[in-house]
Amino acid sequence: MAYYWFKAFHLIGVVAWFAGLFYLVRLFVYHAEANQEPEPAQSILKNQYEIMEKRLYSIITTPGMIVTVVCAIGLISTEPEILKSGWLHIKMAIVLLLIGYHHYCKRIMKQLAKGECQWTGQQFRALNEAPTIMLVLIVLLAVFKNNLPLDITTWVVFGLVVAMVASIQLYAKKRRQDKEKLAQVELASSAE
């Protein structure tokens, strides 16, 4: 029965952790783009994003990571022979990368709070794709284990993920260009 409890809370932890990571970097996008706003809006927005980032990281994202890792250790303790599985070693390596990403986000939060971060909103949008890729790999490994299919279906799914990432980037670029055009129109109309 312990296995099922660990598994249930492991999945809950994964959902909370990834939700937090996805939203945290989205807040970084808004935080970076607040630099383009005039004062006092810029200071107000940056202060609000800083508060939101800290709360999200401390109340949802980090506890989600801790629950995920602790319950994974619990799962392994119920079936120690699973440590001999190659797929689990790959999954654990990806999770270690994800933990590094998690802590890197904390570093970015501190830089944003000090006004020392030079990243653009577009760069943060690209950074936000890293946990998506890791999530896909982790889920595929957990589901297929040592039988990960490398047939046409796998490549179609991979292609869909790449297309999704590309479409998000293109949409962000279009929004940025539209905003720049609107600013030029407003500037031209105020000059008249």
TrEMBL record:
Keywords in alphabetical order: Cell membrane, Heme, Iron, Membrane, Metal-binding, Oxidoreductase, Transmembrane, Transmembrane helix
Transmembrane segments: 6-25, 56-76, 88-105, 126-146, 152-172
Class of enzymatic activity (EC top level): oxidoreductase
Cofactor note: Binds 1 heme b (iron(II)-protoporphyrin IX) group per subunit.
Top-level taxon in the UniProt lineage: Bacteria
One of the record's GO molecular function terms: metal ion binding
Swiss-Prot/TrEMBL GO biological process terms: protoporphyrinogen IX biosynthetic process
Catalytic activity: protoporphyrinogen IX + 3 A = protoporphyrin IX + 3 AH2
Main function: Catalyzes the oxidation of protoporphyrinogen IX to protoporphyrin IX.
Record note on quaternary structure: Homodimer.
Family: Belongs to the HemJ family.
Protein name: Protoporphyrinogen IX oxidase
Organism: Hyella patelloides LEGE 07179
